[in-house]
Amino acid sequence: MDCDVDYLSNLPIEIFLHICSYLDINKSLPALKCVCKQFKFILSDDLVWKSRVAGRWFPNEKGIEVDWLEACKCIENEASYLRDPSTCDQLVSERAHETDIDALHILENHKTIFTGSRDGLIKIWNINTEEKALEKSMILPCAHNGWIWRIESEDCHSIYSCSFDHSLKHWNFSGDNLVEVWSLDLKFPVLSIKLVNENVIAAGVHKEAVLVDRRTGTSFRTIFKDNHVKLCLEMINDNYLLANGAGKKICCYDLRNDKDEVVSFNFGQVTPLVPLHLATQQNIMYVADGSSKFYSADITKNEPLALRGYCGYDAQGGANAKVFGMFASYTSLIFGLNTGSSSRLAFWRTKPYSLKEEENRYSVLVKSGEMLNLGCSGSICSKMHYRDSMVAAAHTMSNDLVCIVPKEFILYSP
Predict the structure, then answer these.
(1) What sequence ranges are listed for the domain F-box (predicted)?
(2) What is the 8-class DSSP label of residue 260?
């Protein structure tokens, strides 16, 4: 063999990329980029990563920017983690609160969980992957004078919480201390909040949703002027705000044009139940009503909600699971399900569509993955939060806190 010939450099690009398709995106491929300038040049092309996820994710939609390398990481990490129980550790803190846990939030540092309960307490938990334990790091008594219903974060330091006591609060989290920055009395029980640009939108048992300046803690505008309870707020493409409520109607607000109800979906036409959970994926809205069914619609085309299927099954194969949480990731819709005998996770994986299928693209989903148990058999969950292949869930009655963490979790950023 001629040792002076650089066989790797002379490989056709197609063969090189075929070899790369078998390599791990977190370890092997980054090392391969450092071998030579040619490899770095090839692996720096967005088209390489876009092609790598073809067949496993929606293609790029017009006007939507996609970081294809980041999309690859999310897809391949998620595919290898939560769908396989052997790749995950389950961390449990028994009796995390004395009363029901209604608010759960994983910080973007992937090391901290915030919990809020009906006793007005906020507790902060460290995720110790080495000891495989949830460690309570802080208790903030009397954070609110009523049930804490939602906790959100702008980053690892700016935390927001809302409560039945009518208050919306902004906190500064330094890692070992939580300090109140401002508190606003909104004169109605606050059930949902959403961070949008420089504002926080608050809604609940009130005929209007309120926009609040996050910097000063002052309200300055109202939207969604109806008489329905707002149970959940969600965003699509940073432009459209969705709100669902007890009126069985899902409304859309265009934040750019200040126009109320650009699209309005009458959920009562497809189910007698209340739309409890919202999730969005590009321009697609997914809705779950707490039963075993979920629905979908294209928010930009004013299309009606379409029955899509069952999100989970019980041990006998029947569609009796009840949804207690729903989140959308790059690759999947993740459902938290109570099946009557246990609480589990189920995944519906997005599937690419051809140009001929474009009109029906929001309905192209396939069932995927095993259902992972959330705690012991017979245990029922009430709340869930999903972030980057991590899941936190709260159990009813026992008030246990459980967190599912990939054993080889790799922190990456866009």
Answers:
(1) 5-52
(2) S
Please compute, for residue 47, the number of CA atoms within 13 A of its CA located in the half-sphere on the CB side. 5
Question: What are the residues facing 73 on neighbouring strands?
Answer: none
Single out the residue of 95, 92, 102, 144 nearest to residue 120, CA to CA: 144
- 235 touches 194 (CB < 8 A): yes
**Class assignment of domain 78-406?**
mainly beta
pTM of the model: 0.82
* Strand 277-281 relative to strand 284-288, pairing: antiparallel
Q: What is the DSSP letter of 259?
A: B
Rounded-to-integer distance, Cα 166 and Cα 151, Å:
14
**Rounded Cα distance, 176 and 166, in Å:** 27
Asked whether the beta carbons of 280 and 234 are under 8 A apart, the reply is: yes
Q: Residues 335, 311: contact at Cβ < 8 Å?
A: yes
Amino acid at 337: L
pLDDT tens digits for range 341-390: 788 887 776 554 443 444 444 444 555 555 677 776 567 888 999 988 88
- Side chain identity at residue 319, one-letter code: A
Q: How many CB atoms lie within 10 A of CB 198?
A: 11
Residues 387, 273, 398, CA angle at the centre, nearest 5°? 50
Residue 340 is encoded by which pair of tokens? 């009557």
Domain ranges of the chain: 1-44, 78-406
CB 217 within 8 A of CB 202: no
Residue with tokens 């919480």, as numbered in its chain: 161
Most confident of 108-117, 237-246, 276-285: 108-117
Q: How far apart are CA 98 and CA 101, in angstroms?
A: 9
- Alpha-carbon distance values, 66 to 20, 46, 50, 77, 167 (Å): 21, 10, 9, 17, 37
